[in-house]
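Hey, resending since the last one bounced:
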Amino acid sequence: MQKIIYLDDPLKRDFYTEMCRLENWSTRTLQKKIQSMLFERTALSKKPDKLIRQELDALKADDKLTPDLVFRDPYVLDFLGLADTYSEKDLERAILREMESFILELGVGFCFVERQKRMQIDNEDYYLDLLFYHRKLRRAQQRARATAARTGTPLAFYRDGKVELHYVNETAASAANAPAAKSD
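The structure tokens again:
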């Protein structure tokens, strides 16, 4: 907790306090999260201060996680030990080799579901490189660009040597018009 006390920004301090409480971080884990600038990498940090405060207050009151608290951009993947340039296949192999560290970087609550998951959308086959599920959010995180446009699911995928997150705003209109996805 001493590491949190010295943070100048009260929003950052409250973010780390709540996440530490919710995910039961050790002092070492807290220090690592602060050093890796976790708060700045969350979607939450890109919101106006008033909305950040509301979301942190809701987290404190209800222990309710939101996608803005969970998903990060960028993810720190230094632990994979990849060279400066690498293929998507190399990235996938390295992730599988280091699954535990990767899931810890994603955050508490993620589960690995499947590799090369086949999904059929509008009678077209799509293969999700890696499929994760977040238990508290009850949402899947997939690595397939086409699925994002069709289903409105938050996705992470590899491009230009980085893993990027893409969010699709879910509205009642787009949800009503979204095609049903079937999985095997």
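Residues 10-23 form the longest helix (14 residues).

Sorry for the duplicate.
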